[in-house]
Amino acid sequence: MNHAVNDAALDTLFRTARSHNRWLDKPVTPQILMALYDLLRWGPTSANCSPARFLFLASRAAKERLKPHLDQGNVEKTLTAPVCAIIGYDVDFAQKLPRLYPYDPKAKTWFTDPKHAETTAFRNGTLQGAYLIMAARAVGLDAGPMSGFDRAGVDREFFPEGRIKSNFLCGLGYGDERALIPRQPRLSFDEACKIL
């Protein structure tokens, strides 16, 4: 089976895709968010642990709750994005392993050490956040991932039970290409990679 996708798909997902900070006034429907999740959930995680949790802030009221916790440079692009996703991770993800990883009944016990569970949740939740960006592009949305917020404040506001921790934010919608700056360079293979 040939797994390669065509050049147009590679352009959409990688080569011509851009991170957006300004958005067209065009709504993102719940159906497209469900389609986005239906794609990203198939990306691999350790032992299929799937710790990422996604909170899609689509209403003005929800985004206003986020506003006090944003760095100043992220306020306008967050409030004007049709949707701002909070990508979080569940430190108690192992509770779902009997269903998600039924091949080993002891899998749940692999993560009884809180530090190991947190590291695993953060790493795999970050992977799933990257899958969200790629899935957004695949379903025709643009994405604007960002740091620059008070994690503790966001966690208190949106995840007060303490089980879920925020990782990063991502604006979702239809980007305004007129606001894009020239594409920035990337490291070459020789700068970033070695083959041993």
Short précis:
With 196 residues, this protein is of the alpha+beta class. It has a single domain, classed as 3-Layer(aba) Sandwich (NADH Oxidase), CATH 3.40.109.
Provide a descriptive summary of the structure in words:
This protein is α+β, with helices and mostly antiparallel strands and 196 residues long. 38% of the residues lie in helices and 15% in strands. The protein has one domain (19-174): NADH Oxidase (3-Layer(aba) Sandwich). It has helices at 7-15, 30-40, 60-66, 75-80, 97-100, 114-138, 151-158, 189-192; strands at residues 52-57, 83-90, 142-146, 164-173. A four-stranded antiparallel beta sheet has the order 1-2-4-3. Helix 1 (7-15) crosses helix 6 and helix 2 (30-40) crosses helix 6 (114-138). The chain is globular, with a radius of gyration of 18 Å. It starts with 6 loop residues before the first helix and ends with a helix.
Structural category is: alpha+beta
Q: What is the count of helical runs?
A: 8
- CA gyration radius, whole angstroms: 18 Å
- Tell me the total number of β-strands: 4
Largest sheet: 4 strands, antiparallel
Broad CATH class:
Alpha Beta
Read across the widest sheet, the strand sequence of neighbours is 1-2-4-3
- The poorly predicted ranges are none
Measured as a percent range, the helix fraction is 25-40%
Order of helices and strands: HHEHHEHHEHEH
CATH topology: NADH Oxidase
Shape verdict: globular
Mean pLDDT: 96
**Corresponding CATH architecture:** 3-Layer(aba) Sandwich
Number of domains: 1
The end-to-end span amounts to 28 Å
Q: Write out the CATH superfamily name.
A: NADH Oxidase
Percent range for β-strand residues: 5-15%
